[in-house]
Amino acid sequence: MAYSEKVLDHYEHPRNVGSFDxxxxxxxxxxxxxxxxxxxxxxxxxxxxEGIIEDARFKTYGCGSAIASSSLLTEWVKGKTLEQAxxxxxxxIAEELALPPVKIHCSVLAEDAIKAAIADYxxxxxxxxx
Amino acid sequence: MNTALQQDHFALFGLTATFDLDTGDLYxxxxxxxxxxxxxxxxxxxxxxxxxxxxMAAQLNEAYSVLSQPLTRARYLLECxxxxxxxxxxxxxxxxxxxxxxxxxxxxxxRRAGDQxxxxxxxxxxxxxxxxxxxxxxRLASTVGGADADLELARQAFYRMQFYHRQLEDCxxxxxxxx
Lengths: 130, 179
Known about the structure:
The structure holds 2 protein chains of 2 kinds. Chain A contains 5 helices and 3 strands; from the N terminus they run αβββαααα. Chain A is of the alpha+beta class. A 3-stranded antiparallel β-sheet of chain A has the order 1-2-3. In chain A, strand 2 and strand 3 form a beta hairpin. In chain A, helix 1 packs across helix 2 (64-77) and helix 4 (90-97) packs across helix 5. The longest helix of chain A is centred in the C-terminal third of the chain and has 26 residues, at 104-129. By secondary structure, chain B is mainly alpha-helical. Chain B folds into 2 domains: 9-68, Orthogonal Bundle (Helix Hairpins), CATH 1.10.287; 94-173, Monooxygenase, CATH 1.20.1280. Helix content of chain B is 69%, strand content 0%. Chain B has helices spanning 9-12, 23-36, 47-68, 70-80, 94-113, 116-141, 148-173. Chain A binds chain B through residues 31-38, 40, 42, 59, 61, 105, 108-109, 112, and chain B through 85, 87-90, 92, 94, 97-98, 100-101, 104, 158-160, 162-163, 165-167, 169-170.
């Protein structure tokens, strides 16, 4: 199956690959996986005191569509509030990357990852305040 | 013969539904059943009977291919016991996923270094991990009418098996670039 140009671009030049210190209170880490494909995705956000996502990093092992979905998402969430980031839907990712139906689940994985990262960040915050 | 089409894969072979099975015995049962369905035996049969024998042969092949491999057998058992595996499960263990990333990084290092002994050792380690998960799955999901909590844990063991299998496939598919 041929990948779209946008998928290839992200696959060949992934944005924001890497990691933050997951113990950092300003960092939220989301880890998700798709066992049948063997895909693993780690997505991290760094949130400033105003609740804005300043920076994002990812590390994904999987197919081109999974890598492109997470790469695109790290670009999208930068500068967004946590609420705005929560509203990102997998269908927007799939549309932007022109993913074929059999690869839609890769964009679902990315949406799950950002939700998990936000939940991790909120969990850490409420723990440190409480 | 009419009833066989509704039977589950295990019953088709006259076996109890369980993860631990003797694949040699399964093969012998498969071969014997296959013989009884050979088209030559239906040369003088009615078109309806012939069609049914073809359907049954197809079901037999499907059942054998599912039950002969531990991974597909485990999936089938989970489906039969109302805990079908999900494609994007939300309840994967974070520690396990972190370990997956580490294993993938380790494989990249091993592959880059190109040491054949280390490459073989890495794959052997994956096979041991798969065997350990199979043992765990067997312990949790072999009894009929097992507790829901056990089946839930069995499903997690199945997910780990799937991850290790995929990684092993990737390792086996990898060929060093020709210089």
